[in-house]
Amino acid sequence: MAEPAPLRPLIIGIAGGSGSGKTTVARAITDPLDLDAVLIDADAYYCDLAHLSLEERKQGNFDHPDALDIALLADHLTKLAKGQSIENRRTISLPTPGLPAPSSWSLGMWCWSTAF
Question: Please, what is the Cα angle at 13 between 75 and 33, to 5 degrees?
């Protein structure tokens, strides 16, 4: 008898503005159920502005989708959906850094602003 194919990880997105409680909601669901879940905070995907002066960085609109590296976020979510691990360039809330889990939660205002 053939073994069943492994289940594809589930990607769940929670969109909302800064401080709206996205992480609180995700943790309120995953923690009591002891779910093996990866929480991907879109804040970890802001474009690197280290090349700009502090004054130039202060002028940035961090609520605009162009402030985020959406392509990298999409790539990471696609890889996790395929059961592949990711290399994260910044600290993000991963119980086991970069490893896929049965569910991945993408948290951020623009987490579903593009098709994956």
Answer: 115
Task: Return the SS3 of 72.
Answer: helix
Nearest to 93 by CA among 14, 47, 26: 26
Pairing of strands 10-14, 103-107: parallel
* Other Cβ atoms closer than 10 A to 39: 21
Domain that holds residue 69: 11-107
Q: Report pLDDT for 91.
A: 42
Total count of domains within the chain = 1
For residue 83, being part of any structural domain is answered with yes
Burial class (CB in 10 A: 0-12, 13-18, 19+), 37: buried
Q: In what side-by-side order are the strands of the sheet with 10-14?
A: 10-14, 103-107, 37-41
Tens digits of per-residue pLDDT, 63-88?
777 888 888 888 888 888 887 877 76
Alpha helices (H) along the chain: 22-33, 54-58, 70-81
